[in-house]
Amino acid sequence: MTQSPLALLSLVVLTIPISSFHVNQVQALNRELGKLCSSPPPQALTVCRIHARLVSSL
Fold it and tell me: What is the reported pLDDT for 57?
């Protein structure tokens, strides 16, 4: 499941003060989670579910 980096970024914008460093880090995290969760190993299922709920709640 690939999610938009913009979706996760929006969540962060609503919850904490943002610096360009934070924005870049959140975008990188969201990209990596999207890659991981497109075909997750069993150990990552919980993380992928949390990621999906965060992104879909926006």
Answer: 76
pLDDT of residue 4: 59
Given a contact cutoff of 8 angstroms between Cβ atoms, the answer to whether 55 and 1 are in contact is: no
Helix axis angle, 45-56 relative to 20-38, nearest 10°?
A: 120
Three-state DSSP string of 1-58: CCCCHHHHHHHHHHHCCCCHHHHHHHHHHHHHHHHHHHCCCHHHHHHHHHHHHHHHCC
Residues of the chain with pLDDT under 50: none
What value does the CA radius of gyration of the chain take, rounded to a whole number of Å? 11
